[in-house]
Protein 1
Amino acid sequence: MSVSQIVLLILGSLLLINWTRKFWLLKSMTHYSAAEVKDKLKGENILLLDVRTDMERRSQSIKGSLHIPSGQLRSRIGELEKYKNKEIICYCRSGNRSLNSVSLLKKHGFKSANMKGGIVTWNFSNKK
């Protein structure tokens, strides 16, 4: 076997491992549509957590949401301790960064979920 074949085999294996890990991580999370989040906001004990950047947040946010950018969440997790009794629903622009935030929150013992499609879907559902 040549060096290039070994490198390709290793890269392929790493990609497969990463894909498998992401697949199981996604399956273990709760995902809500924007419509389901809107229904939950009517009375359930939840907190919306915006994990987008400061610049993204300035352009638009969901009223009543808390803002901690995903890149700062690990160092600021203590700020969420007072919300341990709530389900924390994370959102970003399209729903990708929020997945990592949900995973981190779960590792720290929070009940957390992801809003599928992020604020893009939220905005689309408001136009209906």
Note: The longest strand covers residues 46-50.
Protein 2
Amino acid sequence: MKHTIKTKKKNIFIIGAGRLGITLAAVFATKQAQDFKVRYIMSHSDKSLIKAKKIIGKHGEKIIFTKNIAEGIKDCSIIFICTPDDEIKKVCDSISKNAGLNLEGKYFIHFSGSKRLEVLKSAKNSGAHIASIHPMKSFASIEDSIRTIGGTVYGITFEKTHLSRESVETGNLIKNIVDSLGGTAIEVKNEDKALYHAAACVASNYLVSLVDYAVGINEKIGIRPEDSLKGLIGLIESTINNIKKLGTKKALTGPIARGDTGTIKEHLDSFKKNFEKNDYLLYKVLGVATSKIAYKNKWINKKTFEEFNAIFMDN
């Protein structure tokens, strides 16, 4: 759905030819009808630029792959900063200090989930509009990300000054960018970005750690990681499908959901025999959290809930 802002063809300058930058460039380049056009991709690395050009292919014939940051700034009204988080402020400050660059009226957008708008303060002080767009998506593989980016949810943040014309236009612009990527936008307050990003890390990064933890438990009893992962992936996928259908609370299954304290005691007894105490701390922490869900669902009574807590605390 198009948001109410009159947008002509706008040139985009992507700073950073990593997984995110290349994915965004490729998606915009392959779209036939859009309000936005990637004009430049910049990186200090020849290797990254060569890779970007190869992946984007024929659709990127009109894109300029460059190591010169100034030419992209001069020719583009929208600047995407797709560098690692800790580099965003440095890049923005470097551009702002260049006396030969006029930033008035341009849009500086960073793609960090955790960094606040303040990292773009130098651009704002030079007359630019600032915002951030964060895709709730894992970019482990560029090719896969290009193929699956449609339907992604994006956390967007922009300055709101009593619904001023500039605020409305900036908000509508970044919503239109998300629309062009085939995504959905949700607004995240600037002061809430760290917690918003923490939630994303738990759901994505910590999921990887959790599955690795499960694989490690099986490896302790002689099951090869590749065999273990094959079985666990099927379980994970069915669980994800249940979450989609039922939500996080009602999708819960297993011994805690059933109030089976005896099974949990057996788990912990086996951990004691085969692992150091610190190696099953995560299991206990997650057990406490899971018992809270079961109790809130009214699947276990208060007595059973307290028994679970005692089991996890005592072992």
Note: The radius of gyration is 24 Å.
Protein 3
Amino acid sequence: MFIVRNRAVFYSISGILCVAALVALFAWGLKPGIDFTGGSIVEVAYDNASSTRPVVTAESLGLEGASIRETGSNGFIIRAKELTPEEHNTLLAELGNPVEKRFDSVGPILGKEALQKSWMSIGLVLLAIVLFITFVFRRVSRPVSSWKYGLIAIVGLAHNILIAAGAFALFGHLFGFEIDTLFVTALLVILGFSIHDTIVVFDRVRENLRDDSKGRKAFDELVGESVRATFVRSVNTSLTTLLAIVVLYLVGPEATKHFSLALAIGIAAGTYSSIFLCSPLLVSAFKWQGGNK
């Protein structure tokens, strides 16, 4: 199949995307939100037209280091240090008593705990995925060892998470995007969705190997047939999911926009890696171990 024969091209595309993501992460890093650092977030809106809104800056509000971002045509989202009830009321008064749509406050201890639990969650999910793949493909040993299926799946997952994180590092630098617990939730969903697509392809490879028990077909031919058989299903599943996510991004509340954007990037990367990266890597693993058939 075209994908297997031209795997070097798709490896190059993945390599370029991963290097770009790493550059963004090392250059700018991810900007943690108040979920992880502690602080307060206030979302307000004005009933009048946008032209009547006051000019809002961190200096005018007396909130040093605060992040202020416009939302819609008549509102603001303000992220600042943890506000006391008195400071909160004073802030609303200085803003001209607009309609308050959201107010959340997280202490630094809770923020640190949330960060630790987020990393723990991602680690546990990866461990569970490795154990699952090891168990499911434990009897697949011809011509690629079963543990290599799990290793290749982890490579694909790292590819997807890295691209999503790199994109948000870039967005954080350009637009001030911050990551929160919803972003971590999006990463966990990406892990689950990506591994589902990868296992579908790997399972078809396993079935084709079982049907060709006498080894009449070359391994790269079997992998190509497996990709061809699952290609339309994988793409259609991803497209319908992405359609729902795009609708959520366009018409959903402001609080879920970054969540839906992270999901869209990760799922698109996951679909690509399942078809154009993980499956060809099986063939490359076979070639690297000196396989001919």
Note: The CA atoms of residues 218 and 293 lie 5 Å apart.
